[in-house]
């Protein structure tokens, strides 16, 4: 059964009766009075007190503020350079598309109707103004007289004028614009002032074009040609021996690898066979196998006496080593004069050797082509290209210049000389430039075609 409740039960409101048939009597008037307006006023008063105080009791300074800065979003919506004028000014500023009639005097119309001939202007006369000016010029009276003076300075040595600067000053801002940018000189790398490093072992710079000896001639003398032929033959034989040794070492290496692979395969097969035999043995045939124990001795803990013995032995060894070093130092101190004499003798021999090498180098400075000994560590990751063999075989020697066949390449020689002197870095020749990869696709615009 539902619970019956009154309409005003639990609402917290006073009982109301807006339609009163009669207000006779004091009791009826008090019971049926409408206090809704009073309650609303009290509720608003409490809300104002909660928010910070009664508005009517506050001063005007607490309730209102004077905005002196303005809205910050207005300049964004309406920039300073966009100023909207009045409609009246816009109407007044409108002008007709037809230009106004000029008030200056215009020349007469040269068109005619064919009956009266048109007037022709005279072109073979001079006006009075030009005539007076010409008379003054003839008499030596010029309007603009230019005095020619010799220059007191060299125009080409004058310092460069600074860039033109236009400055616009306003009440609060200053704007500066450079019309001509300053010329920036290229920065010279510091390596341009350094000497190039030669690839020779002695580090000496060789001439750009070495002078060939007599053995390089197309018609050489027999002793020089024979010595050079023997030298080149020895080099070729040595290179061939090295090549054969490298091939033999490579073949031995391959044979050893094949042998080791065969041995490993045979060992694997034996291991597989032994496993198969062990698996095929009758269970329990070998007796006493499980009773076997490892015979390795287990490590035992050292006693204090053993530790002391090891410590005394290490101290004795260290003391003996120290005594030996001190003895050697005393012996060295005793023979210090002898050591000084030996060092002086070594320095003297070294200086003599250097002087001899310098003399040999000075003797070799005639620019002749000789065998090159390169340094171990070269510049870059590529090696110096080998020099072409410039040798004519005995059966190729010609007695006549008409039958002479020129050999060699000056471009290759000059390039290798620059590499050897360290002028240019050694690079690898790339015959073809790497092109960018391109993907070919078919456009789908034909699908948009509709009949």
TrEMBL record:
Gene Ontology cellular component list: nucleolus; nucleoplasm
Biological source species: Hypocrea jecorina (strain QM6a) (Trichoderma reesei)
Entries under InterPro entries matching the protein: Nop53/GLTSCR2
Function: May play a role in ribosome biogenesis.
Basic residues compositional bias, start-end: 21-30, 298-312
Membrane-crossing segments per the record: none
Stated name of the protein: Ribosome biogenesis protein NOP53
Region (Disordered): 1-32, 189-220, 257-332
Pfam families per the UniProt record, alphabetical: Nop53
Keywords: Nucleus, Ribosome biogenesis
Record-stated family: Belongs to the NOP53 family.
Keyword DNA-binding assigned: no
Compartments it resides in: Nucleus, Nucleolus; Nucleus, Nucleoplasm
Keyword Nucleus set for record: yes
Comp. bias regions, Basic and acidic residues: 313-332
GO molecular function: 5S rRNA binding
GO biological process per UniProt: ribosomal large subunit assembly; rRNA processing
């Amino acid at each position: 059964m539902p619970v019956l409740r009154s309409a005003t039960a639990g609402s917290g409101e006073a009982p109301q009766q807006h339609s009163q048939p009669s207000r006779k009597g004091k009791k009826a008037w008090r019971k049926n009075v409408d206090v809704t307006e009073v309650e609303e006023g009290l509720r608003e008063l409490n809300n104002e007190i909660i928010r910070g105080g009664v508005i009517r009791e506050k001063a005007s300074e607490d309730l209102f503020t004077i905005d002196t800065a303005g809205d910050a979003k207005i300049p964004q919506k309406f920039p300073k350079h966009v100023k909207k004028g009045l409609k009246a000014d816009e109407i007044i500023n409108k002008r007709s598309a037809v230009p106004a009639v000029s008030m200056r005097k215009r020349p007469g119309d040269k068109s005619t109707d064919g009956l009266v001939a048109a007037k022709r202007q005279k072109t073979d006369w001079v006006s009075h103004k030009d005539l007076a000016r010409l008379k003054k010029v003839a008499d030596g009276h010029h309007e603009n007289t230019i005095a020619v003076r010799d220059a007191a300075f060299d125009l080409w040595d004058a310092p460069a004028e600074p860039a033109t600067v236009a400055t616009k000053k306003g009440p609060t801002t200053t704007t500066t614009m450079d019309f001509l940018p300053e010329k920036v000189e290229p920065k010279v790398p510091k390596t341009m002032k350094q000497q190039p490093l030669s690839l020779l072992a002695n580090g000496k710079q060789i001439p750009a074009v070495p002078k060939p000896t007599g053995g390089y001639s197309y018609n050489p003398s027999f002793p020089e040609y024979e010595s050079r032929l023997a030298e080149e033959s020895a080099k070729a034989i040595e290179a061939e021996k090295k090549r054969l040794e490298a091939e033999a070492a490579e073949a031995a290496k391959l044979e050893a690898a094949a042998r080791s692979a065969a041995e490993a395969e045979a060992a694997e097969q034996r291991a597989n066979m032994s496993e198969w035999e062990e698996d095929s043995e009758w269970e329990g045939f070998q007796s006493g196998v499980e009773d076997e124990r490892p015979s390795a001795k287990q490590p035992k803990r050292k006693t204090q006496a053993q530790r002391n013995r090891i410590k005394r032995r290490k101290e004795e060894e260290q003391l003996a080593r120290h005594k030996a070093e001190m003895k050697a130092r005393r012996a060295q101190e005793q023979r210090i004069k002898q050591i000084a004499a030996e060092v002086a003798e070594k320095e003297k021999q070294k200086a003599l050797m250097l002087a001899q090498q310098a003399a040999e180098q000075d003797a070799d400075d005639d620019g002749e082509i000789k065998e090159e000994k390169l340094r171990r560590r070269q510049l870059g990751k590529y090696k110096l290209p080998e020099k072409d063999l410039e040798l004519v075989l005995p059966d190729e020697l010609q007695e006549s210049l008409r039958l002479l066949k020129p050999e060699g390449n000056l471009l290759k020689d000059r390039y290798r000389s620059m590499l050897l002197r360290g002028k240019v870095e050694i690079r690898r020749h790339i015959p073809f430039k790497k092109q960018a990869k391109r993907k070919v696709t078919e456009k789908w615009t034909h699908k948009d075609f509709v009949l």
